[in-house]
Every structure is written in C-alpha cells, then in structure tokens.
Amino acid sequence: MNIGQESGIKNLLIIGHTNVGKSTLCNVLCDANYFEENDYTAKKTKNFQKKDFIWKETKYRVIEIGVSLNDKKDLYNKLGEVIYSMPEGISQVLFLIDERFMAVEISTFKSFEKEILNSDITEYTTIVRTKFGNFKIEKKRDEDKDQVIYESEAIAKVVKLCKGPIYVNNPPINITIEDDDDKERVENNKRTRARSRNILLNHLETACQEKYYKLTTWDELYNKIASVKSNGTGDIAEEVERSLKSEKKDEKTQQTTRQKSRKNQKDQQWFDEKYSNEEVINIVGRKRLNLAGSLKIEDFKNLKNISLKKLKIANLEINNCPQLNIINMSELAKLTSLSVTGCSKLIVLNCSLNELTSLEVSGYHQLNNILDLSTFTKLTNLYVRNYSNLTTLDFSSIEKLISLKISGCLQLTNINNLFKSSKLESLSVIDCPKLTTLSYSTNGLTSLEIIGCKQLKKISNLSNVPKLTSLTLIDCPNITKLDCSSTEKLTELEASDLIELKCLNTSIKTLSVNLCPGIKILDCSNNDKLINLDISNCTELEFLDCSTSKLTSLGINNCKFLLKEYEQNGTKSNRFKYPPDLKIIEKRIMKNLIIVGRIGGGKSTLFNILTESEDFEESGRSISVIKNFQKKDFEWHGKSFSVVDTIGVGDTQLFA
C-alpha cells in the first residue's frame, strides 16, 4: 500500500452540470450540511469540495467537482486534487442528471470520459437521476428510464454502459421558517432526503467493488502532486495534462496494435481455410493479397513445397509439416523472426532474409550438414535444436548475436568463429556429444550453460568472460578441472565430474558439489558472499579452503580425508582452512528429507519454508532451469535434518 492510502475506504466522485444538485446530494450522503447548497442558476464553486463519513462501519470519502467544457487548466487542477485526495483510486463515480438527459449532460459525460479519464471508467459509474418527485414509484421510474433511453442512440449507449439510473429526490431543507407550514415542509423534506440516502447507500454497498479505478499513471501522478504540494513549486495542471497526453498516446498505440491483431487473425483464418490441405503453396504478394504481421503454417499434413515472395509478414512459424521437402523464401523484406520446427523430411531451406533477427530451426533429419548463416548478418537470437546431420556452425558473419542455444545436435563437431559475436550475452550448448572444443571470448557473456557434451575437452579461459554471473557445466566427463577465480560477478555455479574446482574471489552464495563425488581439491576462499556449502557426497575431498567466507556450519562427516586432517590438528590444518567461527560437524544422526514433485509445484518454496531461508531459487517458470539438485541442512528442536530439492518430475528440458 502506498503512502496516504487507507485500506477499505470507498471513494465517491460526484460530477454533473451546474445546478444539477451535486452539493445537495453530497450533504444527503454525508447526512450533514457541509456542502454549500445554492439555488442560483450559476453556482460559483471554486475547485472542489470533499468530506468523509462512515456508514455500516465503512468509511466513505465524497468529492464534488464541476466539469467545465472550456477551462482545461481548471479541469486538470481538479483531477489532480481528486488523485491527491483519493490515492487508492475511485470506487464509484456518481454522474448526476435532472429532468431529461439533455445535450449538456451528453457533452459533460463525454468530456468526463474522454478528456479526463477513459472509457474504462464507465464500469465504475452510476447515473443518478435527481429531482425526481416520484422516486418511490417503480412504474414512474421505469417510464422515465424508457423515455431517457429512447431519447437518442447516444443517450441509450451511455445508460447501457453505466449502472443505474438510480432515482432520488433531495428537496431543500435550508428554508427560512416563518410558520408551522414551513416547519412541516422542512421535516417532510428531511424524511424524503433520508429515503434518498438509504437508496443511494444500499446501491453503493453492492456497486463499490473491492478494486478501484485508476489511470495507469495514477500512483506516479499522486507522488508528483504530493511533491508539488510539499515543495510549493511546480504546476499540478501541467503534470496532469502531460500524464494524460502520454496515457492517451499509449492507449492509441494499444488500439492500433489490437486492430492489427484482429486483421492478422482474419488473415490467418483465411490462409488456413485456403491452404491447409494443399501439397504446394506458392504465394507472391500483390495489392489484393498482402499478408502482413504474423503467419503460422502448422499441422499442414499434405504440404510438400512452399514458396513465399514479396509479402509483408514480420513473423513466420512453420511447424509440424511432416511431408514438407522444400522451403523457398525471398523478398520478404519485413520478416524479422523465423521458426521452422518439426519438418523431418525437409531437404531444401532457401531463404535470403537480410532483416532476420530471430531464427529457430529444429527437427531436421535430412537437411545438409552445414547451416549457412552467412546471409543472416542482423541475427540477434539463434536456436538450433535436434538437427541430426549438422556438423558445423560458422559465426564469422554474425556480429550482433546476443543469445545462442544449441541442443540435441548429435553430429556437431565444430562451432567456428564464435568470437566474432562480441555482443553475445547468453550461450547454451546441450547434448552435443561429438563437440570437442568450445571457444568464446565475448566480454558481454553473462550466462554459460554446457550440458551433456561427452567429448568436450576444453572450454575457453573464464578470464575472457569477466561479466559471467551464471555457469553450468554438467555431464562433461572430460573436463575435470575448472577455474572460476577470475569471474568476480559469478553468483550461480552448477558442475559435475570435477576433480578440482577453484571458485575463489566469486560472489557465489550457495555452492553444492555433490555431483562431483571424486573431487579432491576445492578452493572457495575469499568469498564473503558464501553462506551455504554442501560437500556431503565428496568422499575423496583432500583439500578445502573456505576461509573468509560467511559459513557458520559445515558437515564433513563423509569426507574421510578432511576428518583425518581435522582430528590430527589442534589448530587449523593446512589442507582444511575455514573461518574461525565455523561450526564443524564431524558426526551426527541426520533425518533426510527428499522433496519431489512436478515442475512448478512449489518444491523450492517448500524447501525455503522448512529451512527458514531464501537459499533455493523460487521460479515462476513452467519449465525448470535447474538440472542439479539442491541441498541444505538445518536444526529443529535439537535434531538435524537434511533436505534435498530434486529436479522436477516430467520434462526437464531447458527448451521445449
């Protein structure tokens, strides 16, 4: 909740033309005589009036404003005051009309709807018909409503969009009393106003939703207005006007986007109906046929050959076309994103697409063994998956690449000239068992993931990637030594099969080396961020340096060599260095807990609750990005527990 907001308050905004009875209705709602009621035709109320009242233990705030069609600055000032007085937002707008819905009411409403707020406000608006003497008689109310609706289409539309009309009558009580007739008239008017109040409040009790109406920039405007009032400098009207113009511009952009989306849906429907059963698709763009936006060719079971030319499509997806042999694409000047997946019989992929920035290719078994990337000079995102015959990828022409994902390319042996892609930030290579070397020297790399590359013997020195924050090296058995000491920004590390690991000088908070049961040397010194270290599965560990870390406890009961060193030395061992306050646990009886469940089922969240920590990353993703399990020990009621968060049950592929 922002500063100034009150929980549960109902904010009522009263608007309407001059002399419609706004102040009178406010007094009726508040059961007070706070708002000045004026019988003059031209009422001279400056700015706005507000008052709080309580009904049935709920707090209400009433604000009255007059909507001027001409004075925009006054209008913006009033809206600024409304926002400042209602930081929570608007619960309900009461739009007042009297007698018949005349042109002035229509103009006032449209000004209110379009100039001040937007069309969404109608959901929070109730029309209140004032000065209706027969407000207690249902038949009279229905007759008036029918007459109002049939007045014009514009009136009918306004009434249909809003709640109501609610019929009330608020006769005056500020009458000069000169005799008993005047006294009786005042008392009768008070009773009539009380009935009107009950009608309004009973309606508001159900109409006022739990949520509030706000402009997108409401909270931002509130803070700016509060600053203007606090500092005494600045112009509220200018701030409101600037914000409204920006909001309307955004709304116009969104409207254009929605229109394009609707057109694209129609184009897609027409395309599917016309071509879904064809064997050959040959389309050349022309005035009468000019597909634009996005196009999806999916599950076309008979399609064998497709040729697309001179179309304005920006995004193209070709998916699951099992008979497709040939794809020819040329002169698609607007195409920036291309995805071709699940076309196992594809033999020819000809595409001269100089503007392409995103490319995904997957599921090729007969395509040639080299993917020619030379024409894709503007490519920023590339994903190559399950490309059976692919042996070589050459990146000499791709200098703008930001993200590269390669998965399931069983014959891939060479990734050449990746250093040319100097802007690369994310690199993932998974299940490429014949890849032997991987060279990357990109200063911008922040995420590196290498999994299941059985023949990989060497990766680039990590000193070449000083911005690296996340590193995964799993199931690459030929890489047994890893030195991360030059990556000071590294916060996440997962590794397996290592014999020696140096991760000193990093920013890792939690480190588990349980997938390295044969590790002998572990150096994680000079890391004041390290708070959790798990070596419980490292039976061969001979050297451990965790000095200058923030570890408070460490279990070494399965590390026979460390136990030996620790027990033989009354002081610190040369082969086991640790912080002076570290609680070393040599032997203990553990209660082991294993957490299993589907991906997204809340395993990591439950882990954090059990251990009273935030060590396990809680992810909102539907697909887990954690291949390694995580583990932590904790104490409860004098007993020791060890809890393990396993990988999710089901599909654990990083890229579906």
- What CATH architecture label of the largest domain applies? Alpha-Beta Horseshoe
Q: Which range best describes the helical content: under 10%, 10-25%, 25-40%, 40-55%, 55-70% or over 70%?
A: 10-25%
Percent in strands? 25-35%
Largest sheet features: 10 strands, parallel
Give the mean pLDDT.
Answer: 82
Q: Supply Rg.
A: 36 Å
Q: What is the CATH level 1 assignment of the largest domain?
A: Alpha Beta
Quaternary status of these chains?
single chain
List the uncertain runs.
567-571, 620-627, 649-656
Tally of individual domains = 3
Shape summary: extended
Number of helices: 10
Going across the major beta sheet, what is the strand order?
8-10-12-14-15-17-19-21-23-25
End-to-end span in angstroms? 39 Å
Going by CATH, the homologous superfamily of the largest domain would be: Ribonuclease Inhibitor
